[in-house]
Amino acid sequence: MTAAHAVALAPEVLPAEGAAPAPFLPTIPQVRYLLAVREAAEAGRPTTDVSICAGMHLSRRTLWEWRKDLRFCAWIVQEVLAPSDMHWALTIARHEQLAIRGSVRSAEFLLKTRLLAAGRLAGGRGDDAEGGDGLLVDASKHYHINFLVPRPPELGTESG
Length: 160
What we know:
- By secondary structure, this protein is an all-alpha fold.
- The protein has seven helices and no strands.
């Protein structure tokens, strides 16, 4: 969404020049909506607008009105992602152990997440994000994994 779309969708949300944005304080129905989304996701049910609104007896127009407020959108995304962020360190530790044991997929996962994190910390580009010809390169797709594993001992003796 561009800034022009944001202004067109919710001009009343934008703060005045130099003013700090007001913190978002959800209403009780908005908190109920969040809890319904979480409950449906945990139970493996669909989390579409239609299914959540039908289960809550909430009008889809009301949800549409809420979504015009960019603060509501930011709040709902933050709250929905918070439980999964809690387990991120455990996920990384597990993939590190699997990569040490030889899992190529875990090694790729670790490499990609670290490259993406480094790119995000460097302002959206990694240190070597620019190719030799001046083109930007997606570091998450250009990598090599080298496993340095000792060769197994010979199974038999050479017959001469």
